[in-house]
Amino acid sequence: MKQETKRSVKKGIANTFGSFGYLFGFLQWIWAAALYLSVIQSVTSLISSSDSSHYVERPVGLSLTLPGPLGVIVLTVVVAAALAITVYAFFVLPRSIVKTSNKIVYKTAESMTPIVIKAQHKHDTKRNRIKITSRLVIVLKALLILVPLTLTVMSRLLQEQPIDYSIALTVGCGLACFSMVAFVVQYFVAMLLRVKISDLW
Hints:
The protein has 5 helices and no strands. By secondary structure, it is an all-alpha fold. The chain is extended and about 70 Å long.
C-alpha cells in the first residue's frame, strides 16, 4: 500500500509539469487564434455591411437614475454570478483544460498506434502498443506547440495585423518555450523518479 501511494505521489509530481505544458499550449492556441481574428472580422463586416444599409440610426436619450430595491437585488445577483464565474475560471477551468487536452492527445495516440504498428511490420502486442503510444504522445505534444507557433510566425503575411508583429512573435514564442520546458521537465522528473512514460499525461 505504501509503495502504491509513493508511486502515485511520484506520478503526480511529474504530471504537474505536464499540466503546465498543456495550459501554456492551450494559451498558445488562443493567442494564435486571436492573431487571425482580423480575417474573421473582415468577413463578418462584409456580411453586416449589406444588412446595415437598411438600418436607420435613431438618437437615444440616456438618463441615469439610482436603482430601486429591486434593482439593487438584481445588481447583487449579477455581481455574485460574476464572482462565481471568476472563481470557476481560475480554479476549475484550468483543470478541465488539462484533462480535456490530455484525453484528446491520448485518444489520438491510441487510435494511431495500430496504424503505426502495421506500417512498421511489428507484432501487435501489449508491450509494443504501450511503447508506440507513449512515443506518439510525445509527437502530439510537440505538434501542440509547433502548429500554433507556425501560425504565429505566419501572421506576418496578414494584411491587417491586430497586434504588432514583434509583440505577437514574442508572446507566441514565450508561450511555446514555457510549454516546451514544462513537458521536458515532466519527462526529466519522470526519469529521475522512475515513473513509467506510459503513466505520464
